[in-house]
Amino acid sequence: MKLPIFRKIAACFYAVLLLFTLILGIVFVYLFREHTIKIHREQMTGQAVAIAETLSRYSGNRTGVYRMYQRLLEQISVVDVWIVDNRLNVQSMCSHDTHREHSRQNDIPPLPPEAQAIINTVLEGTISFGREFSDILKMPTLTVGVPIYDRFSSVNGAILLHSPVSGINDSIRQTVYALCIGALTAGAAATAAAFLLSRMFTQPLLQTARTVALLADGKYENRCGIAAQDEIGELAAAVDSLAARLSETEQERQALDRMREEFVANISHELRTPVAVLKGSVEVLRNGIISEPAEIAEYYTQMQKETEHLERLVNDLLDLSRLQDQRFRLEKTDIELHNVIQDVARAIRRVADQKSVRIATDCTDADCLIFADYGRIRQLLIILLDNAVKFSPAGGTVSLSLSRTDKNITVCVCDNGPGISEAEQPYIFDRFYKASAGSRAHSSGGTGLGLAIARQIAERHDADISVVCAGGETRFSVVFTVK
Fold first, then answer.
1. Nearest to residue 388, comparing CAs of 361, 364, 370, 423?
2. Is the distance from CB of 343 to CB of 378 less than 8 angstroms?
3. Each residue of 472-482: pLDDT tens digit?
4. How far apart are CA 266 and CA 114, in angstroms?
5. What pTM did the predictor assign?
């Protein structure tokens, strides 16, 4: 059976309260009893000493002694008083209920050894306490014995004061009764406190449970909204953090799905044109619709171009897929960027000469050593130079520069071709991005994956790649961090 946490907290609260009350009551009753007995004993001792001192003044006159004794007994209403001589004979006694004198022979049974021991201790000059007279007086009794001195400071008797313990027990019972009333009152107050405390603890937990249930249903926008500075607050904060991460993950998943759909659509679009051209050319050649050798050669040339385009597209897709896979390891070594710059400049010069575009290099004399994959860095720079040559006007210049600071090594590729609008610059590194008509990024002839591959290569080398268009110049920069 499911037991709500509210009941568990209330039960624990009541159990602790009951245990606390029980222990406190036992300790309090014990200390109160001991304290009461101590005070009562001190009062009895004071009374006995006063009686003994008075009797000591009149020790030579027995008649006067008894007369004084009678007056003292009239002042004492709560104790029994015995006067014992130094031969253990009870000379006089007075009961607190009748105030009448009795003889030892009529009212006092033989004293037990324990009672005689108390009297002997008093006759030796020591004030003594005990409960050994309870059996003689037929009730629980506290006895105080005080010695009586004569005018020569010798002990010639003892005063014994007997007080029933029933008065002390009554006080203790009244105290226990008051303690029980207080415990019941505290229990009533604890009921309200337990309810409020349980609500205070369980309400945030219930709110957190509801939020978790909503998160389990895929509603990641929900939050606990609990700002408590305790363990429950930490739990709620952890759930809110989890909800935020789930929301981000869901957004990334949706973006990935859209990207996947766009990627499939782009691939389909890129493949449709060359496949259609190849299919049409093959059908024309197979059906013998054309017979002129020049026309046949033109069809073969077109088919070769489309095949080469498909090959480049497939190769670029493979490169991009590998670079995005972190398990694909690059063959990194210490390479000198001066050598890479000279290599790519030689490789692109033949293409540039066909458009009458000049390749200008400007390299620093400082060492530019980086830990990188030579082939991939070369591929990155070839992509940037190929685009720069492609969009440069005939007779233009493409500059390739290398510079270094204490922290960074920067490679820049600049051209004076048509620029890229500021609105389109953040997207040119996306796969198959198509810009507006007339823009440089809209031009055809490539696979639409070159800059995406360049960015992946830069990221795999912890480098930053960016583009800036200003003053009729388009500048691509790749910044490596000096290790």
1. 361
2. yes
3. 788 899 999 88
4. 115
5. 0.46
